Amino acid sequence: MTAVPQAVPAADVHAALASVIRAANRIVLGKENAIRLALACLIGRGHLLIEDLPGVGKTTLAHVLAKTLGLSFQRIQFTSDMLPADILGVSVYNRDAGSFSFHPGPIFSQVILADEVNRATPRTQSALLEAMEERQVTIEGNTRTLPHPFFVIATQNPSNQVGTFPLPESQLDRFMMRLQLGYPDNRAERELLKGRDRRELLAETGAAISSRELEDLQRQVDGVHVSDALLDYLQDLLEFSRVSAHFRNGLSPRAGLAILRAAQAWALMHRRAHVLPEDVQSVLPSVIGHRLIALEEQEESGGTAAVERLIRQVPIP
Amino acid sequence: MVSEAISTIGRGATGRAVHPTLAWLVVALTTAAAPHFARTPVWVPVVYLALAAWRLWSPAAPPGREAARTWPALFLILFLGACILAGVYASYGTLTGRDAGVSLLILLAALKLIELRHERDFYIAIFIGLFLLLTNFFFIQSILSAVFMGGAAVIFVAALVGLNDERGILGSARKLLLALAMLAQALPLMLVLFVLFPRVAGPLWGMPKDARSGSTGLDDEMAPGAISDLTLSDEVAFRVEFAGAIPPRSELYWRGPVLWSTDGVKWIQDRPRSAEPQFSVQGQAVEYTVTLEPTERNWLFSLELPSAPPRQGWFTHDMQIRVRSPVQNRVRYTLSSYPDHDLFVSDREELQRALQLPPGKHAHAAGLSASWRGTGLDDAQVIQHALEYFNQEEFYYTLSPPPLLDDTVDQFLFETRRGFCEHFAAAFVVLMRAAGIPARVVTGYQGGAINPVGQYLIVRQRDAHAWAEVWLGEEGWVRIDPTAAVAPSRILEGIESALPESIFNVPLGLQDNLFARTLWERFRFTWDAFNNRWNQWVLGYDRNRQSLFLHRLGLGDIDTPGLVFGLTITGLLILLAVAAWLFKSGVRRSDEAKRLYDRFCRRLARCGMARQPSEGPEDFARRAGNRLPQQAEAIRAVTTLYIAARYAGRKEAMPALRQAVGFFRSPSNIQNWRQAGTTNSGRISLGRDL
Question: Which element (helix H / strand E) includes A177?
């Protein structure tokens, strides 16, 4: 963390980021903050979970992110009868060659759009989730590395909906962020209703950033300076979540790492080479909202209100 | 800070102001005061509870800081205070002393509750409460009360924890656990201090005069019913540890006051005179240590007859052990007695007095013994005859004899014939004196219960007894126990078996069940053994015990100043080590940039622009800049430098930050800052990355 601050990021990278955001904004209306957070998650090498009611634009957002980032892209529609092999791939006996040959599943691409991930059974979910954590998959005894970069953008319906297998906490923890989109505001909705079909727009959208540029961005995120003072603040937040009576469990060290990484990405996106407490506060609701279970609020929103209170109650040291 | 907290934080939907620690404080104070409520006049708990309830359920102070500060109005508190003083004075006739003082303390603590305004007030209330808790020991020092007070102390510490829980993140259970943990951590230190702290010979401060009252026990005079009343009391009179085997029950006569003269109803003592005992002993001595409960009397009890008085006492002419001042604290003394002895007396005049009878009383009794004498019996035969008389006529040993109205002895001997030991002893002595044999009544205790758990003897008030001594020329004073002639089991098996009435504390329903009864008795003995340990080693841990204990530890040679010195040094070293450890592990590096920024924030706060504790520097700069547009540029610059120094790892921004904050004294200095800023404008851009 005491790495020498990186040189000021190249302006063209920021221009590229800006164009990604612009392109996404054109298609997903009125959700600029969610788009920015999603982008921060991806350049922070995190996986993204988008959770909301059907029809508010989860899939569209996932789609537009994948497309504008110019990555190879596979969409997996999760259903309850899906098997792990449907994701990972399968070996088929080739009679001509007289041997088994492996047919890679959709997981072998750079961006996986795992649509309605909580409709699959836990067994299938876990096949995906192993890949997320290890960035490799083991099929029939062979370990195969996944392409680089590798993102999972999963969408899910709120788990109180019919026909869902809620992701357990241990698997939720593997998503760096969980975003909730919510209904568009009045103006955005009017524009949406008046405008063209989103699918057409999506088809027209091209990559706004090259794969090399994305990797460059990711490296720069690593280089964003984190001071001791900021780590003090982060540790205070973690400590608070652990001793506070408001939460069922405290935040894990992995959650701490995720906060830090997201805050670094957020700082980079705001053209800074160091992280400020404000960066942490900006990403915090999305990063820990699905990890903290507030005791008072039993509803599924996962306590964004509790996170807001956490931010308010922990002084910046 | 808390005043704000009271008026803002806790104000929920109901609009009431409740500080989170208030409930804790009230519970703790009430716990400390509750044991006193049974001892104070009724109005004290009523007023206390009313004030506490007022605090808990009162409407909030009127909104606004100033109002919160003066609510309730000072005159109201002064008025209540005056009422309380007047009330206590009216009830006790004084404001000092133990009882009045405790009542006053309870009420003033309640008064403090209603004027809680600042954090400081909470601390004061807690410390008052802790003192109040301690005052319970003025009344009762048993194990149970100590346990209770330990629990109350935990609640007080939990209240302190809550007071310091500034973020309000600790739940009730966690506060209690923390408090327990803290007290547990204090325990070793407490033990060390308890064991090693130098004991002074007397008490450090005098207890109030009224601190001791109402203890039951053997009196210095005896009238019919005096001892049977005591028999109802289960209280411990004293406990005895024997060095060797415990002598048989029939030898366990614990000598107390010796009564010489009677007015026909009451028997009273002689004025005690110091005397060298004249007695010869045979056989083995019995060595034992008595731990006497406070009696408020000037005598000690001993097994008949001790060879020498204990350190703190002296022998009287009738072989009582007297002490200078009444026994107000538990006292411990070691004696060595010879059950087989001959006791003499030096004075002929004494024998003369041992023959006196009240004029015109006990005519029938005198006639009876004269008739025995008339048949030509000698002294020993007269005694024998009297005992046979008690044994063979229809005399009954009972706890509830019929009342004796006119001539107690005659009525008892010839009409009622039902009596307790004092009746028999008094009647016997009257018969002896009428027959010309010098005789006197001895009171004390007989027997006692052996505690199998601790292997010691418990003598309770109900073991109180009276017997007689007669003078038989050659043999000296000889003990005669007429009760033994009527109810031998009283002497051989103890009072429990001698009385038909089942009065001895066996819970209802257990009396017929032998197993349950045995279990219950076993429990009682264990509990008493515990109490005995507690009395001996905790309450009775005085200078002697301490030096004994230190000797056993091999620390016996340390003198008191050395002890104090060593203790102080050790304590300091321990504290230093703990402090060093705490600093190393918990305390953050002090950060100059942060200190400068805090100063800057304080200055802005004075302009009415306070930074929220959780507000980041950029956010604050934006807000402050909008609010104070004229200083926006300066605020921006300080913030930029601060971020550069503290968050971007650019230590080279420190001098500029120092300077910038230095200039930013007050709004009037902005102009100066601008000038300085323009001369060094290059450094401002340090913090800007892009």
Answer: strand A175-179
